[in-house]
Amino acid sequence: MRSNSITRLKRLCLAGLVLCGVSLFGQDPAAQVAITGIRRDVHKKWIFIPDKVDYAVSWSAQIREGEIWRPADPERYTYRVTCQPAEGESIVSKPVTGGLYGFKGLPVGQVYAFTVEALRDGVPVAESEIARDTAGRRGGEESNDDIVRSGSGAEKSVYWFEKYLPISGRWAYFWRPSIYDSSSVIGRLCFWLLWWAWLAGLFIIFFRCMPTLKFQKIFPMSSGGNRGLMRDLKKDYAARISPEFTNILERWKQIIDSANWGIREFIGKKRGQLESSTNDLSGASVKYWSERGSVEVRKLIDEIAHKKLDEYPTVRVFKAGLENHETGGFRWMDVAKEVETSIENQAASELEVLKRDSVYDFLWNLGTVAPLLGLLGTVTGISKSFDDLANLPDNATQKQLIHQLAGGIHEALWTTIEGLIFGITFMMIYYYYQKKLEWIYSKWEEDYVYVIERL
Fold first, then answer.
1. Most CB within 10 Å of its CB: which of 88, 113, 125, 267?
2. Percent of the chain, pLDDT > 70?
3. CB 148 within 8 A of CB 124
Protein backbone atom coordinates (compact mmCIF):
# COMPACT_ATOMS: atom_id res chain seq x y z
CA MET A 1 0.00 0.00 0.00
CA ARG A 2 2.81 2.34 0.85
CA SER A 3 4.67 1.47 -2.36
CA ASN A 4 1.59 2.27 -4.46
CA SER A 5 1.33 5.67 -2.86
CA ILE A 6 4.98 6.36 -3.60
CA THR A 7 4.55 5.31 -7.24
CA ARG A 8 1.48 7.54 -7.62
CA LEU A 9 3.41 10.44 -6.12
CA LYS A 10 6.28 9.94 -8.55
CA ARG A 11 3.92 10.01 -11.50
CA LEU A 12 2.31 13.21 -10.29
CA CYS A 13 5.70 14.83 -9.88
CA LEU A 14 6.77 13.77 -13.37
CA ALA A 15 3.57 15.16 -14.90
CA GLY A 16 4.10 18.40 -13.01
CA LEU A 17 7.64 18.69 -14.32
CA VAL A 18 6.41 18.17 -17.91
CA LEU A 19 3.77 20.85 -17.51
CA CYS A 20 6.33 23.19 -15.99
CA GLY A 21 8.68 22.53 -18.90
CA VAL A 22 6.04 23.36 -21.49
CA SER A 23 5.04 26.53 -19.69
CA LEU A 24 8.61 27.62 -18.99
CA PHE A 25 10.26 26.78 -22.31
CA GLY A 26 7.22 27.05 -24.62
CA GLN A 27 8.12 24.01 -26.76
CA ASP A 28 5.94 21.14 -27.87
CA PRO A 29 8.00 18.19 -29.08
CA ALA A 30 5.10 17.19 -31.34
CA ALA A 31 5.00 20.55 -33.27
CA GLN A 32 7.41 22.60 -35.35
CA VAL A 33 7.26 25.77 -37.45
CA ALA A 34 9.65 26.87 -40.20
CA ILE A 35 10.01 30.02 -42.32
CA THR A 36 9.54 29.06 -45.98
CA GLY A 37 10.23 32.38 -47.65
CA ILE A 38 10.89 36.07 -47.24
CA ARG A 39 9.95 38.34 -50.11
CA ARG A 40 11.62 41.72 -50.26
CA ASP A 41 10.24 44.74 -52.17
CA VAL A 42 12.58 47.75 -52.12
CA HIS A 43 11.14 51.21 -52.79
CA LYS A 44 13.49 53.71 -54.41
CA LYS A 45 13.55 57.47 -54.65
CA TRP A 46 13.31 59.23 -58.00
CA ILE A 47 17.09 59.09 -58.36
CA PHE A 48 16.94 55.30 -57.84
CA ILE A 49 18.40 55.37 -54.31
CA PRO A 50 16.86 52.67 -52.04
CA ASP A 51 14.58 54.29 -49.50
CA LYS A 52 12.26 51.81 -47.75
CA VAL A 53 11.73 48.08 -47.86
CA ASP A 54 8.64 45.90 -47.39
CA TYR A 55 8.97 42.32 -46.21
CA ALA A 56 6.47 39.49 -46.52
CA VAL A 57 7.29 36.47 -44.32
CA SER A 58 5.72 33.11 -45.07
CA TRP A 59 5.88 29.96 -42.93
CA SER A 60 4.43 26.53 -42.41
CA ALA A 61 3.67 24.47 -39.29
CA GLN A 62 3.79 20.69 -38.86
CA ILE A 63 2.75 18.20 -36.20
CA ARG A 64 4.15 14.77 -35.61
CA GLU A 65 1.93 11.74 -35.78
CA GLY A 66 4.03 8.81 -34.71
CA GLU A 67 7.18 9.01 -36.80
CA ILE A 68 5.62 11.12 -39.59
CA TRP A 69 5.41 14.93 -39.76
CA ARG A 70 2.23 16.24 -41.33
CA PRO A 71 1.02 19.80 -42.07
CA ALA A 72 -0.83 21.25 -39.11
CA ASP A 73 -4.46 22.20 -39.25
CA PRO A 74 -4.64 25.98 -40.08
CA GLU A 75 -6.91 26.53 -37.08
CA ARG A 76 -4.75 24.56 -34.66
CA TYR A 77 -2.29 27.38 -33.95
CA THR A 78 -2.00 31.12 -34.06
CA TYR A 79 1.32 32.72 -34.87
CA ARG A 80 3.44 35.61 -33.74
CA VAL A 81 6.06 37.02 -36.11
CA THR A 82 9.05 38.94 -34.83
CA CYS A 83 11.31 41.25 -36.86
CA GLN A 84 14.52 42.13 -35.04
CA PRO A 85 16.64 44.82 -36.76
CA ALA A 86 20.34 45.03 -36.10
CA GLU A 87 19.76 48.46 -34.60
CA GLY A 88 16.64 49.42 -32.70
CA GLU A 89 13.75 47.66 -31.05
CA SER A 90 12.18 44.50 -32.36
CA ILE A 91 8.78 44.55 -34.07
CA VAL A 92 6.36 41.88 -32.87
CA SER A 93 3.09 41.19 -34.60
CA LYS A 94 -0.17 40.41 -32.93
CA PRO A 95 -1.26 36.75 -33.03
CA VAL A 96 -2.29 36.01 -36.62
CA THR A 97 -3.65 33.03 -38.50
CA GLY A 98 -2.63 31.69 -41.88
CA GLY A 99 0.91 31.55 -43.16
CA LEU A 100 1.85 35.07 -44.31
CA TYR A 101 2.59 38.36 -42.58
CA GLY A 102 4.17 41.59 -43.82
CA PHE A 103 6.30 44.38 -42.40
CA LYS A 104 6.10 47.66 -44.35
CA GLY A 105 8.19 50.80 -44.51
CA LEU A 106 11.36 49.44 -42.85
CA PRO A 107 14.62 51.37 -43.28
CA VAL A 108 17.07 49.88 -45.74
CA GLY A 109 20.68 49.11 -44.99
CA GLN A 110 20.10 46.92 -41.91
CA VAL A 111 20.17 43.22 -41.17
CA TYR A 112 16.73 41.96 -40.18
CA ALA A 113 16.23 38.74 -38.24
CA PHE A 114 12.84 37.07 -38.52
CA THR A 115 11.31 34.40 -36.29
CA VAL A 116 7.86 32.85 -36.14
CA GLU A 117 6.29 31.38 -33.01
CA ALA A 118 3.37 28.96 -33.03
CA LEU A 119 0.89 29.64 -30.21
CA ARG A 120 -1.79 27.45 -28.73
CA ASP A 121 -4.20 29.09 -26.35
CA GLY A 122 -1.76 32.01 -26.23
CA VAL A 123 1.14 29.79 -25.11
CA PRO A 124 4.17 29.35 -27.41
CA VAL A 125 4.57 25.71 -28.44
CA ALA A 126 7.15 25.98 -31.24
CA GLU A 127 9.58 28.55 -32.65
CA SER A 128 11.29 28.71 -36.06
CA GLU A 129 14.94 29.16 -36.69
CA ILE A 130 16.18 32.69 -37.33
CA ALA A 131 16.11 33.89 -40.95
CA ARG A 132 18.09 37.01 -41.81
CA ASP A 133 18.03 39.35 -44.76
CA THR A 134 19.57 42.67 -45.78
CA ALA A 135 18.17 45.29 -48.15
CA GLY A 136 20.16 48.15 -49.63
CA ARG A 137 23.60 47.13 -48.34
CA ARG A 138 26.42 45.44 -50.18
CA GLY A 139 27.87 42.36 -48.49
CA GLY A 140 29.27 41.85 -45.03
CA GLU A 141 26.08 40.61 -43.37
CA GLU A 142 24.86 37.11 -42.95
CA SER A 143 21.74 36.20 -44.93
CA ASN A 144 19.72 33.03 -45.12
CA ASP A 145 19.14 33.31 -48.87
CA ASP A 146 18.51 29.63 -49.21
CA ILE A 147 14.97 30.54 -48.10
CA VAL A 148 14.88 34.26 -49.01
CA ARG A 149 13.31 35.44 -52.27
CA SER A 150 14.38 38.99 -52.93
CA GLY A 151 11.45 39.80 -55.19
CA SER A 152 13.66 41.38 -57.86
CA GLY A 153 11.90 39.41 -60.52
CA ALA A 154 8.46 39.94 -59.08
CA GLU A 155 5.97 42.09 -60.89
CA LYS A 156 5.89 45.68 -59.77
CA SER A 157 2.79 47.81 -59.57
CA VAL A 158 1.22 48.47 -62.97
CA TYR A 159 -1.31 51.27 -63.34
CA TRP A 160 -4.60 50.80 -65.16
CA PHE A 161 -3.62 53.05 -68.06
CA GLU A 162 -0.50 50.95 -68.64
CA LYS A 163 -2.67 47.86 -69.02
CA TYR A 164 -5.53 49.19 -71.11
CA LEU A 165 -4.49 52.27 -73.11
CA PRO A 166 -3.17 51.38 -76.60
CA ILE A 167 -0.50 54.07 -76.29
CA SER A 168 1.01 52.33 -73.26
CA GLY A 169 4.51 50.96 -73.68
CA ARG A 170 3.31 47.73 -72.06
CA TRP A 171 1.55 46.91 -75.34
CA ALA A 172 4.95 46.52 -76.97
CA TYR A 173 5.11 43.18 -75.15
CA PHE A 174 1.44 42.23 -75.12
CA TRP A 175 2.43 38.58 -75.58
CA ARG A 176 4.69 38.67 -72.51
CA PRO A 177 3.84 41.67 -70.31
CA SER A 178 5.97 40.36 -67.43
CA ILE A 179 9.02 41.72 -69.27
CA TYR A 180 7.60 45.22 -68.96
CA ASP A 181 6.25 44.69 -65.43
CA SER A 182 9.63 43.68 -63.99
CA SER A 183 11.59 46.51 -65.67
CA SER A 184 13.12 49.55 -64.03
CA VAL A 185 11.79 53.07 -64.51
CA ILE A 186 14.22 53.79 -67.36
CA GLY A 187 13.42 50.43 -68.94
CA ARG A 188 9.71 51.22 -68.91
CA LEU A 189 10.44 54.65 -70.38
CA CYS A 190 12.33 52.97 -73.24
CA PHE A 191 9.35 50.68 -73.84
CA TRP A 192 7.05 53.70 -74.02
CA LEU A 193 9.31 55.53 -76.45
CA LEU A 194 9.73 52.44 -78.64
CA TRP A 195 6.00 51.86 -78.75
CA TRP A 196 5.33 55.52 -79.57
CA ALA A 197 7.93 55.33 -82.34
CA TRP A 198 6.15 52.28 -83.74
CA LEU A 199 2.74 53.97 -83.62
CA ALA A 200 4.16 57.13 -85.19
CA GLY A 201 5.74 55.06 -87.97
CA LEU A 202 2.47 53.26 -88.68
CA PHE A 203 0.64 56.59 -88.79
CA ILE A 204 3.16 58.01 -91.27
CA ILE A 205 3.01 54.90 -93.47
CA PHE A 206 -0.76 54.40 -93.59
CA PHE A 207 -2.05 57.96 -93.29
CA ARG A 208 0.66 60.05 -94.99
CA CYS A 209 2.89 58.02 -97.33
CA MET A 210 0.33 55.66 -98.80
CA PRO A 211 -2.37 58.27 -99.59
CA THR A 212 0.12 60.90 -100.81
CA LEU A 213 2.45 58.74 -102.90
CA LYS A 214 -0.14 56.55 -104.61
CA PHE A 215 0.50 56.49 -108.37
CA GLN A 216 -3.10 57.43 -109.13
CA LYS A 217 -2.61 60.55 -106.98
CA ILE A 218 0.44 61.63 -108.98
CA PHE A 219 -0.32 60.44 -112.52
CA PRO A 220 -3.73 60.82 -114.20
CA MET A 221 -4.77 57.18 -114.45
CA SER A 222 -7.60 55.62 -116.39
CA SER A 223 -10.52 53.90 -114.68
CA GLY A 224 -8.53 50.70 -114.41
CA GLY A 225 -5.83 52.43 -112.40
CA ASN A 226 -7.18 51.81 -108.93
CA ARG A 227 -4.89 48.98 -107.96
CA GLY A 228 -2.40 49.51 -105.18
CA LEU A 229 1.14 48.54 -106.09
CA MET A 230 2.25 48.35 -109.70
CA ARG A 231 3.84 44.99 -110.36
CA ASP A 232 5.48 45.99 -113.65
CA LEU A 233 5.93 49.75 -113.60
CA LYS A 234 6.75 50.25 -117.26
CA LYS A 235 3.95 48.09 -118.66
CA ASP A 236 1.40 49.20 -116.10
CA TYR A 237 2.18 52.86 -116.70
CA ALA A 238 1.67 52.55 -120.45
CA ALA A 239 -1.56 50.58 -119.97
CA ARG A 240 -3.09 52.70 -117.23
CA ILE A 241 -2.06 56.26 -118.01
CA SER A 242 -5.03 58.45 -118.95
CA PRO A 243 -5.57 58.88 -122.72
CA GLU A 244 -6.48 62.53 -122.11
CA PHE A 245 -3.00 63.18 -120.72
CA THR A 246 -1.17 61.34 -123.51
CA ASN A 247 -3.34 63.16 -126.05
CA ILE A 248 -2.22 66.52 -124.65
CA LEU A 249 1.43 65.51 -124.91
CA GLU A 250 0.94 64.31 -128.50
CA ARG A 251 -0.86 67.50 -129.52
CA TRP A 252 1.88 69.60 -127.91
CA LYS A 253 4.45 67.68 -129.90
CA GLN A 254 2.45 68.26 -133.08
CA ILE A 255 2.43 72.01 -132.38
CA ILE A 256 6.20 71.96 -132.02
CA ASP A 257 6.57 69.95 -135.25
CA SER A 258 4.25 72.36 -137.05
CA ALA A 259 6.27 75.37 -135.88
CA ASN A 260 9.51 73.72 -136.93
CA TRP A 261 8.06 72.82 -140.35
CA GLY A 262 6.94 76.40 -140.91
CA ILE A 263 10.38 77.78 -140.06
CA ARG A 264 12.08 75.22 -142.31
CA GLU A 265 9.71 76.12 -145.14
CA PHE A 266 10.58 79.80 -144.71
CA ILE A 267 14.31 78.95 -144.71
CA GLY A 268 13.85 76.95 -147.91
CA LYS A 269 12.21 79.84 -149.65
CA LYS A 270 14.97 82.24 -148.56
CA ARG A 271 17.82 79.87 -149.46
CA GLY A 272 20.72 81.91 -150.83
CA GLN A 273 19.49 85.05 -149.06
CA LEU A 274 20.21 84.06 -145.45
CA GLU A 275 22.77 86.83 -144.99
CA SER A 276 20.05 89.41 -145.19
CA SER A 277 17.12 87.42 -143.82
CA THR A 278 17.93 87.08 -140.06
CA ASN A 279 15.42 89.74 -139.21
CA ASP A 280 12.97 88.18 -141.65
CA LEU A 281 13.40 84.81 -139.88
CA SER A 282 12.63 86.33 -136.49
CA GLY A 283 9.66 88.13 -137.93
CA ALA A 284 8.31 84.98 -139.53
CA SER A 285 8.69 83.11 -136.25
CA VAL A 286 6.84 85.82 -134.35
CA LYS A 287 4.13 85.96 -136.97
CA TYR A 288 3.54 82.22 -137.03
CA TRP A 289 3.52 81.96 -133.23
CA SER A 290 1.16 84.86 -132.69
CA GLU A 291 -1.26 83.60 -135.33
CA ARG A 292 -1.22 79.84 -134.69
CA GLY A 293 1.31 78.52 -132.19
CA SER A 294 0.35 80.39 -129.04
CA VAL A 295 -3.35 79.88 -129.81
CA GLU A 296 -2.93 76.11 -130.01
CA VAL A 297 -0.87 76.01 -126.81
CA ARG A 298 -3.48 78.12 -125.03
CA LYS A 299 -6.14 75.62 -126.08
CA LEU A 300 -4.13 72.84 -124.41
CA ILE A 301 -3.75 74.88 -121.21
CA ASP A 302 -7.49 75.65 -121.12
CA GLU A 303 -8.31 71.99 -121.76
CA ILE A 304 -6.16 70.96 -118.80
CA ALA A 305 -7.99 73.42 -116.55
CA HIS A 306 -11.41 72.42 -117.91
CA LYS A 307 -10.83 68.69 -117.32
CA LYS A 308 -9.21 69.42 -113.93
CA LEU A 309 -6.12 67.53 -114.90
CA ASP A 310 -3.95 70.07 -113.10
CA GLU A 311 -4.89 68.35 -109.84
CA TYR A 312 -2.11 65.88 -110.60
CA PRO A 313 1.54 66.82 -109.99
CA THR A 314 2.56 65.25 -113.30
CA VAL A 315 0.21 67.45 -115.29
CA ARG A 316 1.31 70.56 -113.38
CA VAL A 317 4.90 69.83 -114.39
CA PHE A 318 4.03 69.86 -118.10
CA LYS A 319 1.57 72.72 -117.69
CA ALA A 320 4.50 74.88 -116.51
CA GLY A 321 6.32 74.02 -119.75
CA LEU A 322 3.25 74.81 -121.84
CA GLU A 323 2.81 78.22 -120.19
CA ASN A 324 6.44 79.07 -120.81
CA HIS A 325 6.17 77.87 -124.39
CA GLU A 326 3.07 80.00 -124.96
CA THR A 327 4.80 83.23 -123.95
CA GLY A 328 8.25 82.50 -125.41
CA GLY A 329 7.57 80.24 -128.37
CA PHE A 330 8.31 83.01 -130.88
CA ARG A 331 11.99 82.84 -129.85
CA TRP A 332 12.59 79.86 -132.07
CA MET A 333 16.29 79.42 -131.24
CA ASP A 334 16.04 79.83 -127.44
CA VAL A 335 12.66 78.42 -126.48
CA ALA A 336 13.88 74.84 -125.93
CA LYS A 337 16.21 75.79 -123.09
CA GLU A 338 13.60 77.98 -121.39
CA VAL A 339 10.86 75.33 -121.58
CA GLU A 340 13.21 72.66 -120.25
CA THR A 341 14.26 74.89 -117.35
CA SER A 342 10.66 75.66 -116.39
CA ILE A 343 9.74 71.95 -116.47
CA GLU A 344 12.76 70.98 -114.37
CA ASN A 345 12.03 73.70 -111.80
CA GLN A 346 8.38 72.66 -111.55
CA ALA A 347 9.33 68.96 -111.29
CA ALA A 348 11.78 69.70 -108.46
CA SER A 349 9.14 71.79 -106.68
CA GLU A 350 6.47 69.07 -107.01
CA LEU A 351 8.91 66.46 -105.74
CA GLU A 352 9.65 68.51 -102.64
CA VAL A 353 5.92 68.99 -102.03
CA LEU A 354 5.42 65.21 -102.21
CA LYS A 355 8.25 64.67 -99.72
CA ARG A 356 6.85 67.29 -97.38
CA ASP A 357 3.26 66.04 -97.52
CA SER A 358 4.20 62.38 -97.12
CA VAL A 359 6.78 63.14 -94.36
CA TYR A 360 8.45 59.89 -95.37
CA ASP A 361 11.80 61.32 -94.21
CA PHE A 362 10.63 60.74 -90.63
CA LEU A 363 10.79 57.00 -91.32
CA TRP A 364 14.55 57.43 -91.57
CA ASN A 365 14.63 59.23 -88.22
CA LEU A 366 12.52 56.55 -86.56
CA GLY A 367 14.58 53.81 -88.16
CA THR A 368 17.78 55.17 -86.68
CA VAL A 369 16.42 56.13 -83.25
CA ALA A 370 14.54 52.88 -82.51
CA PRO A 371 17.67 50.67 -82.26
CA LEU A 372 19.33 53.26 -80.03
CA LEU A 373 16.34 53.28 -77.70
CA GLY A 374 16.46 49.49 -77.63
CA LEU A 375 20.15 49.58 -76.79
CA LEU A 376 19.50 52.06 -73.98
CA GLY A 377 16.85 49.76 -72.53
CA THR A 378 19.23 46.81 -72.74
CA VAL A 379 22.05 48.64 -70.98
CA THR A 380 19.80 49.84 -68.16
CA GLY A 381 18.22 46.39 -67.88
CA ILE A 382 21.60 44.67 -67.59
CA SER A 383 22.65 47.26 -65.02
CA LYS A 384 19.53 46.45 -62.99
CA SER A 385 20.27 42.73 -63.31
CA PHE A 386 23.77 43.17 -61.87
CA ASP A 387 22.34 45.41 -59.14
CA ASP A 388 19.98 42.60 -58.12
CA LEU A 389 22.85 40.13 -58.39
CA ALA A 390 24.89 42.16 -55.92
CA ASN A 391 22.20 41.56 -53.28
CA LEU A 392 22.75 37.81 -53.35
CA PRO A 393 24.73 36.44 -50.38
CA ASP A 394 28.16 34.89 -50.43
CA ASN A 395 26.68 31.46 -49.86
CA ALA A 396 24.36 31.67 -52.89
CA THR A 397 24.44 28.61 -55.08
CA GLN A 398 25.66 28.60 -58.66
CA LYS A 399 22.14 27.85 -59.83
CA GLN A 400 20.87 30.98 -58.08
CA LEU A 401 23.59 33.11 -59.68
CA ILE A 402 22.92 31.77 -63.17
CA HIS A 403 19.16 32.11 -62.81
CA GLN A 404 19.38 35.69 -61.54
CA LEU A 405 21.87 36.85 -64.19
CA ALA A 406 20.51 34.99 -67.22
CA GLY A 407 16.91 35.90 -66.46
CA GLY A 408 17.68 39.62 -66.17
CA ILE A 409 19.80 39.74 -69.32
CA HIS A 410 17.19 37.77 -71.26
CA GLU A 411 14.54 40.35 -70.41
CA ALA A 412 16.88 43.28 -71.07
CA LEU A 413 17.81 42.06 -74.55
CA TRP A 414 14.19 42.20 -75.64
CA THR A 415 14.39 45.98 -75.91
CA THR A 416 17.22 45.67 -78.44
CA ILE A 417 15.29 42.99 -80.33
CA GLU A 418 12.25 45.23 -80.52
CA GLY A 419 14.31 48.28 -81.45
CA LEU A 420 16.00 46.37 -84.30
CA ILE A 421 12.69 45.01 -85.60
CA PHE A 422 11.14 48.48 -85.62
CA GLY A 423 14.25 50.09 -87.09
CA ILE A 424 14.67 47.56 -89.90
CA THR A 425 10.98 47.81 -90.79
CA PHE A 426 11.05 51.60 -91.00
CA MET A 427 14.28 51.68 -92.99
CA MET A 428 13.00 49.18 -95.57
CA ILE A 429 9.80 51.17 -96.08
CA TYR A 430 11.78 54.41 -96.23
CA TYR A 431 13.99 53.06 -99.04
CA TYR A 432 10.93 51.76 -100.86
CA TYR A 433 9.34 55.22 -100.96
CA GLN A 434 12.66 56.82 -101.82
CA LYS A 435 13.01 54.57 -104.88
CA LYS A 436 9.39 55.26 -105.77
CA LEU A 437 10.00 59.02 -105.78
CA GLU A 438 13.12 58.53 -107.87
CA TRP A 439 11.10 56.52 -110.41
CA ILE A 440 8.42 59.23 -110.53
CA TYR A 441 11.00 61.94 -111.21
CA SER A 442 12.70 59.83 -113.86
CA LYS A 443 9.33 59.27 -115.57
CA TRP A 444 8.74 63.02 -115.67
CA GLU A 445 12.15 63.45 -117.30
CA GLU A 446 11.41 60.71 -119.81
CA ASP A 447 8.09 62.29 -120.84
CA TYR A 448 9.32 65.85 -121.18
CA VAL A 449 12.37 64.71 -123.17
CA TYR A 450 9.97 62.90 -125.50
CA VAL A 451 8.06 66.16 -126.03
CA ILE A 452 10.75 68.82 -126.28
CA GLU A 453 13.44 66.86 -128.11
CA ARG A 454 12.32 68.57 -131.30
CA LEU A 455 12.34 72.12 -129.92
1. 125
2. 75
3. no
What crossing angle do the helices spanning 294-306 and 243-269 adopt, rounded to 10°? 180
Name all domains of the chain by residue range, CATH numbers in brackets.
26-149 (2.60.40.10), 160-202+360-441 (no CATH), 217-268+276-359 (no CATH)
- Partners of 58 in the β-ladder: 37, 100
Q: How far apart are CA 102 and CA 110, in angstroms?
A: 17
Taking only the tens place, the pLDDT of each residue in 163-215 is 778 888 888 777 677 778 777 788 888 889 999 999 999 999 999 999 999 98
